[in-house]
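User: I'm designing a mutation panel for Tetraspanin family protein and want to avoid disrupting the core. Could you give me a predicted structure to guide residue selection? Please restate the sequence first so the numbering is unambiguous.

Assistant: Good idea. Sequence first, for numbering, then the predicted structure tokens:
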Amino acid sequence: MCLPVSCLKCIVEFEAILILIGGLGSFGFTIYLQIEYNIEKQDDTNQLGPGTIVTFWIISSCMILNGIIGILGGKKKSACLLLLFNLVNIGLLLGFIALMILGYVLANRIEKNDIKDYCSSTTPLQQTQNLGQNLLCSSDCECYIENPGNLPPSYVNYSTTDTSQATKVQDCQYYSDNWNDTQKNQAYFFLNIEKKYDCSGWCNPFSLQIFYDINNNFDQSNDQCLFSAQQQLYDTCQIIGDISAGMTGLMGLMVIFTFCLCCHPTKKDQDYYQKLAYYDS
């Protein structure tokens, strides 16, 4: 049983507004993803590649532009604009299906990651973590500590009064002079995750946030940032899958209503161009 053609037209023309709203929401989520990726791109367990971010930028931008095209096409009764609007909708549906599959596959892969196996060898991030632990409060870098009782026994070069001394690895002159760009980028990664997740260490537990602030009173039970980083990556990929699944359902309904309008019995004598452009007989 077909809906009246006037009802289908009303539904399909409302799609443009929904596409524009969805595109703006997707654009905001893409900004969030970009920020997360910039923070965690040094994580060698990161499954979220730049291709996923680029895909979201493309799809969210296309949704916004397509929503505008649909609104203008509806107001101006432009067959060309409406035809383009509907064809892009089909492309967006396929794009969201791909992102949904990608998000859930990556989330499943991250969930199955064996942390013990990953940490069984000295990873690049753990090497940088070790360098930082060995540098701060050593002969190469005096540190300022408010509570010496928190320091590991090997940390002997410290002051409890001179606040100008280092409170994180990046304050050390040795860091500025001798660490390469990759190590400095990894230090920036550690700074962000220590601050964001209130954690310390990487594969191995550690009692100080050496890249953020050794005087910061963080949650001592969260002494391996690897677990926090892994959980965040899993949650992000799961959200990508969930949002894409929702958008797939929405876009799927829109495409179905569009084809219902195109294939309506009153339009059987029109060609495909006229049908997709809601051309009136």
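For picking mutation sites, this is relevant: The radius of gyration is 27 Å. Residues 225-262 form the longest helix (38 residues).
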